[in-house]
Amino acid sequence: MSSAVLHALHDPYPSRLDHAISPIERRDPAVWCDRTGASGPLSADDLDRFDERGYLIRPDTIGTEAVGPIGTEIERLAADLAPGDRRLIREPGGAIRSIFAPHLLSGLIADVVRSDTVLPIARQLLGGDVYIHQARINLMPGFTGSGFYWHSDFETWHAEDGMPRMRAVSCSIALTPNYPYNGSLMVIPGSHHTFYPCVGATPDNHHEKSLVAQQFGVPDRDTLTKAVDAYGIDQFTGAAGSALWFDCNLLHGSGSNITPLPRSNVFLVFNSVENRLVAPYAAQRCRPEHLAARAATAPIRR
User: Fold this and answer.
1) Can you count the helices (H) and strands (E) in the chain?
2) Do the Cβ atoms of 264 and 78 come closer than 8 Å?
3) Which domain holds residue 270?
4) How far apart are alpha carbons 223 and 231 in whole angstroms?
5) Cα(249)–Cα(244) distance, integer angstroms
6) How many domains does the chain have?
7) Are 183 and 257 spatial neighbours (Cβ–Cβ below 8 Å)?
8) 225 belongs to a structural domain
9) Residues 130-185: pLDDT tens digits?
10) 269 and 189 in contact (C-beta within 8 Å)?
11) Element (H, E) at 64
12) In terms of pTM, does the model score above 0.90?
């Protein structure tokens, strides 16, 4: 029996299947630190809330004085990167949708990763040393910004990147005000307790299309309806500088932005150093380094 077959047989979270199977109860904790004596910025109530609902909102993660310079830095990155650079993801109309690996292109963004209001929270939630699995700037301009369909990030990171366990957390830091009407992120609170297997084999080089519009690795409508019936929908709104922390398996998505009000954010994914990537569980090849770090996995130091 080949190593790839053995790898698939021992998969605790199977997905990208040729037939539907029942949802799977989560087999990993959502909060990895020892809550009885854990030290860190989050209180016991914060940790309990994250465990129960799968997300936390932290105002003033970056100060208002830093928002403007980061916006200027994003404009510089967009101008400096060659039009065909794979780290630039564009909307079908040509506008920039995402800039990947900004922490490796900008000292200012790297400082945000290591800041006192970001890194210690990641370490506390994941119970130790962490590295950046993926980072990007998301841009949703007024009138034309398109949304992200409902999905669990872990489903993709597990199937296409080989992330073994649910020991990763995302931090989305708002660079513009997030209103209920300009495409702000929606989450299904509590959905992180369940893994929802998806149907359909991963196409080769799936990331070339999925980063604009994902069709594989998303739950079907019946599954989403049942999840919303059980848990409801919450929405991340807040001032520029606020942050949404959410579990890697939390179902989330966003609508398009048809208002004149742009929405942008710095999106950071922290993974435990004890959860480094292995071979993909449901894809033929690994995604590029800027989407799923395999080389740059040393613990982040402040």
Assistant:
1) 8, 13
2) no
3) 3-291
4) 12
5) 14
6) 1
7) yes
8) yes
9) 999 999 999 998 988 888 899 999 999 999 999 999 999 999 999 999 999 999 99
10) no
11) helix 64-80
12) yes
